Amino acid sequence: MAFAEIVKIYKDKIVNFLCKFTGDYQKAVDLSQETFMRVYFKAHKYRPVAPFSSWIYAIASNLAKTEMKKMRKYAVISLDEVQNRVPIEAYRKNPPDSGLTRNLKKALDSLHPRYRIPVILKDIEGFSQEEIAQIMKRPVGTIKARINRGRNYLKIELEKASCVENSFMKKEEY
Length: 174
Known about the structure:
Layout (H helix, E strand, L loop, with lengths): L2 H20 L2 H17 L10 H23 L4 H7 L2 H6 L5 H12 L2 H12 L4 H8 L3 H34 L1
Helix pairs in contact: 1-2, 1-3, 2-3, 3-8, 6-9, 7-9, 8-9
């Protein structure tokens, strides 16, 4: 497969994955460029034992984890700041239609990367648990547990947010 074809097939998918992971569109674009540079220069290390998509997502995931560690080390960024960085085109494609979208994003952003990565790969990107295990280099059982724990955390956070919103609505009715 020619490199240009690889970029064409995976560019949007990788940027989307990294954007969900980092919460920063520009950072996602930068990391995707770094991902494709590594794919280009390390293509000789790819072993066709696993699907190519698993290999490229593993590279992107590792770069994102490293970047998140750096970001945590140097600064704390508010959610408002992160949302302001997302370009208007992204809102046109995926408009924030309700408080649910906002609450889900907030809950997903607060989820530890150990759980966030498998949840995003499974529920948003559509990978199987076996593919996620290959990407993260972990046993399938570990991935199943992390997806389950991540989903449970998201459920609890969304229920909390729903209770808070409902209490505000009830107060406004009076």
